[in-house]
Amino acid sequence: MEETVRFRVLVDHEVKKLTLSTGIPSTVDELVTAVKVSFSIPTDISLQYKDEEFDDFFTLTSTNELKDKDTLKVVYVPLHLTLTLVPQESTPDASDVSSLCESVSVSGDSADTVILSPSPSERQSPWPAVFPIPTFSHNTELALRQGNEIYLRDGTPMTSPCVKSDILERLAEAMFTYTAYPNDAQRSAVAQALVEKHPCLKEPGSFNGTYAWQQSLKYKCGNYRTKRKALESPELLVNSLSHKSEDERKAAKNVKKPKRAEVNYLPSHPHGETDDMLENLRLHLIAACQRKDCARTINDMMARTYSWRRQEVVSKSPGVAEFKERWPALFDPFQINEEFRRCTAVPLESTFMSQLDKYTPKLLEVFSAKGGVIGQRIKNLLMQLIQEPSASALMKRDVTLRCLIEYMGESGEELISDYSGTAESIVHEDLRMRNVSIYICHEPNAVGIVIE
């Protein structure tokens, strides 16, 4: 009888548990398949395991290297695409845009495969589940190695101001690659990861061995932001007093910081680009939106102008109508997904759908237990799934979202308007009267969102 094994699996920014009742698979491919099935991962992946001797992750080549309660890390296999891109040295004029649109043809069904690499100035990933402690200078690494040996031998902690200074500087740099404003929980996670990798740095007398490190990181990150502000980092300059209006020139007033999921909140312009060049490119982008078969060209322009667009959003907070007039391409479904990825480094639609499918069974249990008038409306919606036991995933998602609207105390009938068999003129007239609405038409087939 095979012995049940459990693995700690790092997937994106989450830590998950994998239990295999049949024991450790005999091949790596079988283990990869088990991970993909258990966590609903549709794309190709490879696995890394954490080696106890080196305290680092290595590529898994054989399952003989694994044992119960080991830590695995999911690594997504990168897509290999060959794209013809617009040269970055100069801003194309209108004729360049026309010729590019004519030479590149992308159908609507394949538009989601046009994924271009983000600008090097952008952050590439959100805050990790386990913070990777960077490699310090050669002298610091030697001192830490000796300090760890002494600590493991007789429990003597290391106290060296020079080593501490180098560690704090390097950690501040590493944290800035994820966020310019780390919060208390993030600083605590970094300090905890530091003492786990280098136990000689644990503080005697501290309730958790890391409190002083957390406080030192707080001040070091503030000093590091000052250095980066001197290098004209946009997300830091936006909060300087010289960039605020006269009635807001107070250090703590109207501070603009990224929200929890925003990774590229206010990035720098791509190398060689200026405000005038990007504004000119925005005008060419509007012209490209009026032509067909320009998906790749538009996507490239949208990626290049992301920093200019974020400056407008953060500094001016324009209304939806004004923003749509200036950036019409952003309101395309594909570009909404791409803009979300540029901002958070996470794919929007695939992440949302996978998490919705994951929690659908528990959500349906919660919905079924709801009583009262709202519970009755929810039960009417759930009848669609009861009458069709083999309902498709699409129908389950539709029913789950409609039930969620009712469960939150909103009216699905007021939010979602189905105009089946309604004249087009009546549809337009009705939508003009709504501030927020989701509408569905069948002739012609269309689904849309009305805002303002």
Automatic annotation (TrEMBL):
Superkingdom of this protein's organism: Eukaryota
Protein name (Swiss-Prot/TrEMBL): Uncharacterized protein
Organism encoding this protein: Larimichthys crocea
